[in-house]
Amino acid sequence: MDHLDLDRDTITKAYARWAPVYDLVFGTVFERGRAAAIAAAERVGGRILEVGVGTGISLPDYKRTTRLCGVDISAPMLEKAAERVRELGLTNVEGLFVMDAEKLEFPDASFDVVMAQYVVTTVPNPEATLDEFARVLKPGGEIVLVSRVGAELGLRKSLEKWFAPAARKLGWRTEFPFERYTNWVERNSTVHLIERRAVPPFGHFSLIRFGKSVGAGQLTPPRSALVEAGSKVGR
Ligand SMILES: C[S@@+](CC[C@H](N)C(=O)[O-])C[C@H]1O[C@@H](n2cnc3c(N)ncnc32)[C@H](O)[C@@H]1O
User: Fold this and answer.
1) Beta carbons within 10 angstroms of residue 220's beta carbon
2) CB of 100 closer than 6 A to ligand 1?
3) What contacts 12, CB < 8 A, 6 or more positions away?
4) In testing the pocket of ligand 1, which one of 25, 57, 72 has its CB within 8 Å of the most ligand atoms?
5) Cα of 119 to ligand 1 centre, how many Å?
6) Nearest ligand 1 atom, CA 50
7) What is the DSSP letter of 178?
8) How do the pLDDT tens digits run along the chain, 235 residues long?
């Protein structure tokens, strides 16, 4: 592992520190990205797994008819989520589990949507984590991500590199080129890119959707398609 990369211990320590103040710091700033991701997930509907659910800040924003499961590696973050579920009576939340996104303890094809909001740049091994998302997703389902995409070049790229060591201590990566997703799609072969669209704040974040082919595991999957920001391709 790159000495500057993230490891599980750094992450769990960082989010144990964030838990008491997370909603205050990251509640409003990520609101619009979360709303866009939830709208996309609910268009698919069915049973939704939210990975890295954290304090459960997004849970009340789903329709009460949407069946949800949440997982997170941080017990202190998840305790906040459980409190929220109890206080708001969110009976559509089927369960909250301390679980590593890289080793999801669900059978194959368990969910219609796998959602991860502001999570992929925080996990130690993003590609293995995305493989797990694809595994637990039903054929025809969608992976919906909101995530920070690193700059390809220019001043922002230099600043991201400079800030990277501090960001890792806080629990995330600043450098994460979109190429990592396109390379993953090429390799995984059960998924294809549906959409990449910029979401606030600061133009650094994207809503990214992948579809799992209906015949995944049986037929030759469709080739992935790189989609320019703002455009869509059908499934
Ligand atoms: C930036 S927070 C995002 C929380 C929430 N999704 C939101 O929208 O605000 C990242 C979350 O991912 C969780 N996380 C990081 N690595 C993880 C892993 N390997 N497995 C499960 N959860 C993880 C962290 O504990 C934290 O709660």
Assistant:
1) 8
2) yes
3) 73, 74
4) 72
5) 5
6) 6
7) T
8) 454 467 888 899 999 999 999 999 988 888 999 999 999 999 999 999 999 999 999 999 999 999 999 999 999 999 999 999 999 999 999 999 999 999 999 999 999 999 999 999 999 999 999 999 999 999 999 999 999 987 666 666 667 666 666 666 666 676 788 999 999 999 999 999 999 999 988 778 999 999 999 887 533 333 333 333 333 333 3
The tokens for 75 are 């017990």
- The token pair that represents 34 in the structure block: 């979360």
Tokens 């619009």 sit on residue: 32
Burial tier of 72 (Cβ tally within 10 Å: 0-12, 13-18, 19+): buried
Alpha helices (H) along the chain: 8-18, 22-26, 31-44, 75-88, 126-136, 154-170, 179-188
Ligand 1 contact via 33 beta carbon (within 6 Å): no
